[in-house]
Amino acid sequence: METSGSASANVEELFSVKGLVALITGGGTGIGLMMARALAAAGAARVYIVGRRVDVLQAAANSINRPSVVVPLYCDVTSKISLESVVSVVETDVGHLDLLVCNAGIGGPQVKPPVKGVTSLEEWRDAQMAVRVEDFTNTFAVNSTSVWFTTMAFLKLLDAGNKKGRGAGGVTSQVVVTSSIGGFNKAAPGGWAYGASKAAATHIAKMLSVVLPTWGIRANCLCPGLFPSEMAAPIVKAAGGSMVGDGIIPLDKSVVPLGRMGDEADMAGQILYLASRAGAYLNGNTIVADGGRLGTFPSTGY
C-alpha cells in the first residue's frame, strides 16, 4: 500500500503545474480558454489571459471563477506598444513567467476551393482577387508575426522564471505556439491565408526551439485539429456538424476518423503535459492533436 501511495504521489508530481505562472494570448475563448481553465484547476499560481475584447476576457475569467489566479488583460498582439504594456503589468505583479502560450489567431478570409470540372479559371481568379490584400496580410500579422514579437517581448520574464528556481527541478521556462493542422494541409479548404500563416507559425516555433535554449528556454508547437471555437464553427457547419450542446460533438468519420471534435479534456491533457515535468524534455516538438483529421488531407510530399 505504501509503495502504491508513493507511486501515486510521483505521478501527481509528474503532471503538476502547481505554482506555475502562465500567460495565454487569445485566452478568452476556444482553445486558449480551455488551456487557462486547465492550468488554473491544476494549481497554477497565475494565469494571465490576454486579448483585444475585454468583455470576453472578463466573462472567461468569471467562468473560471478563480479571481486570485486568472487575470484578464487587454492586449493587441500585433502592437509592440501593447505587448510592452502587458509585460510591465506582469513584471510589477509577479516578476516572471514560466509559460508563454502564443495562442491568438484569426481565420482570415475564406474563399472556397475550386470544384474540378465546374469552377472556371476566371471564376477562381475573380474570387481570389475579391479578397482584400489587407485581410490576407492581417492573417499573417496575427497568426505568425505576433508569435515572434510576443515571444521577444516576454523573453526577460521567461528568463526570470528560470532564475526563480523552477528550472532546478527540470521544468525550464517555455514558449508554446498554438498552430494548426491547417499549416500542413495543402488542400486548404477555403482558408488560403490561414493555412499559410499557420505553416509560418509552426516554422517560427521551430526556429525559437533552436535559439531560445541558448538561455535555457524551450519552445514547442501544438497543432490542433477541430476543437470548439469561433474559428472552427464554419468548418464544422460545412462538414454537416453542429456546435450546439455540451459534451462530445460528433462529426462524420470521413472528416475526423475518430468521429468527433476535440474537447476540453483533450486540450487540458496537452497543455498539462507540455507545462509539467512530464513534458520537460520536449523542445522543438510539434504535437498534432486532431483525431486523425490530417490523415484525410494531402499533407506530405513537399
Automatic annotation (TrEMBL):
UniProt source species: Thermothelomyces thermophilus (strain ATCC 42464 / BCRC 31852 / DSM 1799)
Q: What's the protein here called?
A: Uncharacterized protein
The molecular function terms of the Gene Ontology recorded here are: oxidoreductase activity
User: What's one Pfam family here?
Assistant: adh_short
Keyword annotations from UniProtKB, A to Z = NADP, Oxidoreductase
| Family note | Belongs to the short-chain dehydrogenases/reductases (SDR) family.
